[in-house]
């Protein structure tokens, strides 16, 4: 086959939830005659333990030469005290940067079967379906100068630089407008143009691109602090939100938590289409590595499985197979199966393994 | 009298809600023999219209020479298209900076009578009482270099600088630890030390200060994205949160919205104590200028009144009078009076004026 998938399970519950995906990949091969060249490698703490770095050049090379990367999660207390440059997170950040994955798609969807899991009132979140597009290779995450210096008076000074250029803003905004056209055709662009010049530029460039190429899409602008409030007050007012790396980090996590089921939410990170027609891409669940429950069979594998389904949709052009997997997820939820993180009274608490078996059974029925 | 208060009503509903405070100040004079030298001036759009700048040097001078500033709100669509440097917000930012108001205290309290107004389930927010301490004169709000430049290739580039020094971090952290001692003795310090060196410095300096002077206070650390999630998931886990200017902007607004009643939340911004023993201070409601309802008698004056009460507590050392006002607010709510923003079925919808009369009546009874 020529579908090349690189699996990077990472740390904590990463390897467990990736086990579920492996079983579904086998099923796809067996029953749908859709096969993948699957390679697997280390990232995060696992790579630090083996190689002394959160990702090696060889692994980055592999990631560059596959069609999609599927990542579990990175980090854990074991590596918390490492110096900044050697932390597990640096592996993920290097992959994003080296692969040029500038558009992070973070759906915040409230699953009907899980409305009660939200801390918000059901009427506020039932049917919620937002897509947050977060810029992922620019801004304060990568801006220079950066670092900590000691001043003549003995004080220290920590600096980071928030920086965006015209083209960085335009390319991620184009992804947002494109996606909006396939949804409810509304984009809300979020910055702090009242306080930051980089936000002024962001607003101007998004507005310009909109006028040039996407004037059929409804565009609005909102300050980031107000957006944080509006997500809590009335999240269903949004369709697509596009914002920078740092605001996107916080807003997408807040939005994810609104749904009450972080263990359900996938994400995609996309780069440009290269000469060979290939768009670099990385898929990962929104949840973290959850070291506290790692190795106990308690992990919810659905976010990672749905991330794999996103790869079928966005990278491998297999929308029907993506649909099958999403349907299987809906079916296991409808049957009342719940891993501990989404357990509710009257439902059946199951392990990662039982959930996986149930998913395969549902797939077999289709 | 030597209690000097400068009132800056600002824009939108600012003047209306300040009218309520004026009546309470008169009541204090009449019934408590507590009098103020009240001066009033312009800020924001109102100052732009009159003087062409969002705050004049003369107004800043007045603010420097009073004991406390009480501000309404700034901004509105009329001034939205002004260039960055002349926007209404710049007036507020200049006051914060010139007065050295580095510690912004933002209580997020869920009033018992208003639990139902929250979009969150009652069990998640009932009894909520968080204090967010936001650094207010540093970080990306004021860091240099900043601006928009045009590159040789014709692209533009927007830059802002996130910068913190040892002493900037220590002084705001000290305010947080001090306040925690008077509350539940817990401080959660929030940054992105996994991504930003300025966050690494923040975490190290807070930890150091804690070890040196505040080891009796319980200290924890949290990443800003996780904090945004935890505020939605389980806000009552927090006592005092201390964070930087930009994270604080978003997190305090999200926290405020959890309570369901933005129209109820005051804030205080404090500077250092000067040679004369005076601590510069500015008090303002968390809500904005709400231009859509300005001039219609619909504004909720309680957040501004509670901001005035905070000034009695923190600047004027009149805790009993602050208590009286807070009690009057509780009483009008208990009687079922509600401005439109907090209206609920079975309650009595009232105007700003009726709410004000009811407050004075309650005060008269005490
Ligand atoms: C792990 C961390 C570096 C990362 C980020 O801040 O981008 C994470 O929070 C995310 O959102 O993917
Ligand atoms: C009006 C604006 C400049 C201000 C800020 O960003 O600080 C506001 O959002 C606030 O939180 O007081």
TrEMBL record, chains A, B:
<keyword id="KW-0560">Oxidoreductase</keyword>
<keyword id="KW-0100">Branched-chain amino acid biosynthesis</keyword>
<dbReference type="GO" id="GO:0000287">
    <property type="term" value="F:magnesium ion binding"/>
</dbReference>
<dbReference type="GO" id="GO:0051287">
    <property type="term" value="F:NAD binding"/>
</dbReference>
<dbReference type="InterPro" id="IPR004429">
    <property type="entry name" value="Isopropylmalate_DH"/>
</dbReference>
<keyword id="KW-0432">Leucine biosynthesis</keyword>
<dbReference type="GO" id="GO:0003862">
    <property type="term" value="F:3-isopropylmalate dehydrogenase activity"/>
</dbReference>
<dbReference type="Pfam" id="PF00180">
    <property type="entry name" value="Iso_dh"/>
</dbReference>
<feature type="site" description="Important for catalysis">
    <location>
        <position position="141"/>
    </location>
</feature>
<comment type="pathway">
    <text>Amino-acid biosynthesis; L-leucine biosynthesis; L-leucine from 3-methyl-2-oxobutanoate: step 3/4.</text>
</comment>
<feature type="binding site">
    <location>
        <begin position="288"/>
        <end position="300"/>
    </location>
    <ligand>
        <name>NAD(+)</name>
    </ligand>
</feature>
<dbReference type="GO" id="GO:0009098">
    <property type="term" value="P:L-leucine biosynthetic process"/>
</dbReference>
<keyword id="KW-0028">Amino-acid biosynthesis</keyword>
<keyword id="KW-0464">Manganese</keyword>
<comment type="similarity">
    <text>Belongs to the isocitrate and isopropylmalate dehydrogenases family. LeuB type 1 subfamily.</text>
</comment>
<feature type="domain" description="Isopropylmalate dehydrogenase-like">
    <location>
        <begin position="4"/>
        <end position="359"/>
    </location>
</feature>
<protein>
    <recommendedName>
        <fullName>3-isopropylmalate dehydrogenase</fullName>
        <ecNumber>1.1.1.85</ecNumber>
    </recommendedName>
</protein>
<feature type="binding site">
    <location>
        <position position="225"/>
    </location>
    <ligand>
        <name>substrate</name>
    </ligand>
</feature>
<feature type="binding site">
    <location>
        <position position="253"/>
    </location>
    <ligand>
        <name>Mg(2+)</name>
    </ligand>
</feature>
<feature type="site" description="Important for catalysis">
    <location>
        <position position="192"/>
    </location>
</feature>
<keyword id="KW-0963">Cytoplasm</keyword>
<feature type="binding site">
    <location>
        <position position="134"/>
    </location>
    <ligand>
        <name>substrate</name>
    </ligand>
</feature>
<feature type="binding site">
    <location>
        <position position="96"/>
    </location>
    <ligand>
        <name>substrate</name>
    </ligand>
</feature>
<comment type="subunit">
    <text>Homodimer.</text>
</comment>
<keyword id="KW-0460">Magnesium</keyword>
<feature type="binding site">
    <location>
        <begin position="76"/>
        <end position="89"/>
    </location>
    <ligand>
        <name>NAD(+)</name>
    </ligand>
</feature>
<feature type="binding site">
    <location>
        <position position="225"/>
    </location>
    <ligand>
        <name>Mg(2+)</name>
    </ligand>
</feature>
<dbReference type="InterPro" id="IPR019818">
    <property type="entry name" value="IsoCit/isopropylmalate_DH_CS"/>
</dbReference>
<dbReference type="InterPro" id="IPR024084">
    <property type="entry name" value="IsoPropMal-DH-like_dom"/>
</dbReference>
<feature type="binding site">
    <location>
        <position position="249"/>
    </location>
    <ligand>
        <name>Mg(2+)</name>
    </ligand>
</feature>
<comment type="function">
    <text>Catalyzes the oxidation of 3-carboxy-2-hydroxy-4-methylpentanoate (3-isopropylmalate) to 3-carboxy-4-methyl-2-oxopentanoate. The product decarboxylates to 4-methyl-2 oxopentanoate.</text>
</comment>
<keyword id="KW-0520">NAD</keyword>
<feature type="binding site">
    <location>
        <position position="106"/>
    </location>
    <ligand>
        <name>substrate</name>
    </ligand>
</feature>
<keyword id="KW-0479">Metal-binding</keyword>
<dbReference type="GO" id="GO:0005829">
    <property type="term" value="C:cytosol"/>
</dbReference>
